[in-house]
Amino acid sequence: MIKTDNHISQRSKSAATDSISEKLRVLTEWADAGIPWVHTDDGELLLNKKGDPKPDFFPTSIRKFCTWDGSQNCEFVRQTLPQFSSNSQDTLSRPHNAKLKHSVVTTIELAKAKRDSQVAVQAKRDWRTQLSLEVKELEQKRAALAAQIAEFEHRAMRAERELKELQAAHNRNVTHLTEELQSLRNENASLRRQGHKIFELPKRDRHDE
Fold first, then answer.
1. The dihedral sign for the CA sequence 73, 78, 80, 83
2. Closest residue by Cα to residue 102 from 33, 24, 10
3. Domain ranges in the chain?
4. Helix/strand/coil for 81
5. What is the pTM of this model?
6. What angle do CA 64, 67, 71 make, to 5 degrees?
7. Which of 168, 58, 71, 175 is nearest to 118 (CA)?
8. What confidence tens digit (pLDDT) does each residue in 86-116 have?
9. DSSP string, 16-71
10. 3-state DSSP percent of the chain in helix, strand and coil, to 5
């Protein structure tokens, strides 16, 4: 009975160590390649209100490392994880696991640094993207304003040309009317002279008699 219990205990310890090693392997990969981003169940990148992606769960302490069993991750990431389970902190605290614990602590710090780097790069990329969009928007506004100015200048030139044409037509009309008025005055003066002559002829005829 004692041998059986010892055998079960050894198997349990081995399973716990295997689980820790598997989690450490995954975390090491993430610390090197990057913490995966949170995705929806359909595999779409999940963005926050600012439009930024968010790193998925990863253990940031010994306690969280021990309780990590994959359920804390999104479904999309969970499908890529090997099978591992939570373990007791006592397992890592045992003398024979001192080296393993040191590796876990070191890898956690590396993973945290990688996360911070990812977020910083993403923020920088978003800043550049936002700046690029703002510059593009300003260029579009400038182009639209330039088009409006060109249109206004074209309309102003056309209005000025039409005004000159109207002024020229007005001047021609004034000249024509002035000439016509003068012609009428001349004609009127001629008629008056003729009228005077007509009225003067009878008087001369009577005087001659």
1. positive
2. 24
3. 2-135
4. coil
5. 0.59
6. 105
7. 58
8. 999 998 999 989 999 999 999 999 999 999 9
9. HHHHHHHHHHHHHHHHHH-PPBPB-TTSPBPB-TTS-B-BPP---SHHHHHH--ST
10. 75, 5, 20
